[in-house]
Amino acid sequence: MQFSSLFFSLVLATAVVAKGDKNSTSTGTKAVTDKSMCKEMASLNMLVKLASNETKLADKTKNNATKMAEIQAKASNASTMLTTMSSNATLMATCATIDAAAKTDDECESMKSLMKLVSLAGNDTALADKTKNNQTKIDAIKTMATKAQTKLDAMTSNTTLTTACDSLKSTKASKNGTQDAAASASAAASASSTAKAKSAASMLNASVGLISSFVLVAAGMMML
Ligand SMILES: *[C@@H]1O[C@H](CO)[C@@H](O)[C@H](O)[C@H]1NC(C)=O
Ligand SMILES: *[C@@H]1O[C@H](CO)[C@@H](O)[C@H](O)[C@H]1NC(C)=O
Ligand SMILES: *[C@@H]1O[C@H](CO)[C@@H](O)[C@H](O)[C@H]1NC(C)=O
Ligand SMILES: *[C@@H]1O[C@H](CO)[C@@H](O)[C@H](O)[C@H]1NC(C)=O
Ligand SMILES: *[C@@H]1O[C@H](CO)[C@@H](O)[C@H](O)[C@H]1NC(C)=O
Ligand SMILES: *[C@@H]1O[C@H](CO)[C@@H](O)[C@H](O)[C@H]1NC(C)=O
Ligand SMILES: *[C@@H]1O[C@H](CO)[C@@H](O)[C@H](O)[C@H]1NC(C)=O
Ligand SMILES: *[C@@H]1O[C@H](CO)[C@@H](O)[C@H](O)[C@H]1NC(C)=O
Ligand SMILES: *[C@@H]1O[C@H](CO)[C@@H](O)[C@H](O)[C@H]1NC(C)=O
Ligand SMILES: *[C@@H]1O[C@H](CO)[C@@H](O)[C@H](O)[C@H]1NC(C)=O
């Protein structure tokens, strides 16, 4: 629950930050502006969705009526802004492209996490080291790694995905220094799946008391 309130503050913070973000990037190109608009739309959407769910709202605000009213007022404004933005077909098309790229990026990162988990489970030295020789943890990691391998096999068999990941990798390597733009777009569009993986991961962390974040994120993905 700690996580969800942190996430919630992030959503609000993002909704505010995204607006002032337009020329704060070093490149300041049109692409970056579009990205920040898409990012803003994503956070506005989250805000509207939150405000429309009484249960969730009460939960997140710990039933504080003042906070609930504040959020609903912000959401009402957000809703109007969204309507205006959504009517721009050019922007919507751009956002769809950015979202698709971010999704792919997210999937590539997931593959990396899954591979690390599988590799950890196959290395007894590393396993003993990371778990401080705790057999319960070792077993848990091995069980998760088996599932990770299955998921990885499915992803690897998708050549569209693997090709995209390869080209993304070389793009990132060659454009070293400008990766932050891509990263922030990805953060916006993939907020939901990554957040879900992390949220699942923190549940797992709490119950099993696992170790490194990549194990947790990989594990969280499998709980989706
Ligand atoms: C944004 O651009 C305006 C006009 O070019 C400039 O005055 C302002 O300082 C910029 N803001 C940031 C945060 O870079
Ligand atoms: C509202 O939020 C609750 C708890 O976060 C969730 O279980 C439920 O599915 C949501 N309802 C809708 C209609 O999205
Ligand atoms: C409810 O939220 C408001 C605004 O954030 C805050 O000032 C107030 O102290 C909160 N009330 C309670 C009972 O926590
Ligand atoms: C929404 O909030 C912004 C900034 O606070 C304000 O400029 C705008 O007029 C508001 N829009 C509506 C529809 O309330
Ligand atoms: C629609 O969005 C595009 C891309 O962000 C922008 O260049 C254009 O000015 C917008 N058009 C309107 C009418 O706001
Ligand atoms: C196993 O992990 C250890 C310690 O993390 C590392 O030094 C070693 O190179 C790894 N072995 C293999 C085969 O990857
Ligand atoms: C393969 O990956 C691409 C890119 O992520 C995706 O659009 C497509 O749906 C995937 N195909 C299958 C069969 O899962
Ligand atoms: C980017 O460059 C820095 C230093 O030049 C290097 O340490 C880093 O690993 C590079 N990152 C990528 C993704 O290539
Ligand atoms: C091993 O890990 C499990 C799960 O995190 C924990 O409950 C248990 O206390 C640990 N055992 C030892 C000896 O530390
Ligand atoms: C996992 O739990 C430990 C101990 O509660 C905590 O220190 C660590 O930050 C958690 N890691 C993640 C990724 O949530």
Distinct bound molecules: 2-acetamido-2-deoxy-beta-D-glucopyranose
Radius of gyration: 20 Å
- Annotation field: number of helices: 11
The strand count comes to 0
Separation of termini?
18 Å
Contiguous runs where pLDDT drops below 50 for at least 5 residues: 1-29, 184-191
Report mean pLDDT, rounded to a whole number. Answer: 77
Structural class: mainly alpha
Question: What oligomeric state best describes the polypeptide chains here?
Answer: single chain
H/E element sequence? HHHHHHHHHHH
Helicity level, as a percent range? Answer: over 70%
Keywords:
single chain, 224 residues, mainly alpha, 11 helices, 84% helix, binds 2-acetamido-2-deoxy-beta-D-glucopyranose, signal, Cell wall protein
How is this structure best described in words?
The protein is mainly alpha-helical and 224 residues long. Among the domains are: 35-87; 103-166. The protein is 84% helix and 0% strand. It has helices at residues 2-20, 30-52, 54-60, 65-86, 89-121, 124-131, 135-156, 159-174, 179-189, 191-208, 213-222. The protein is flat. 25% of the residues are buried. The structure holds 2-acetamido-2-deoxy-beta-D-glucopyranose (NAG) (10 copies). Residues 1-18 form the signal peptide. This is Cell wall protein. Keywords: Signal.
How would you summarize the topology of this molecule?
Elements: H1 2-20, H2 30-52, H3 54-60, H4 65-86, H5 89-121, H6 124-131, H7 135-156, H8 159-174, H9 179-189, H10 191-208, H11 213-222
Helix pairs in contact: 1-2, 2-4, 2-5, 2-9, 5-7, 5-8, 5-9, 5-11, 7-11, 10-11
Bound molecules: 2-acetamido-2-deoxy-beta-D-glucopyranose (10 copies).
One 2-acetamido-2-deoxy-beta-D-glucopyranose (NAG) is lined by residues 134, 136-137, 208-209.
Protein name: Cell wall protein
Signal peptide: 1-18
Keywords: Signal
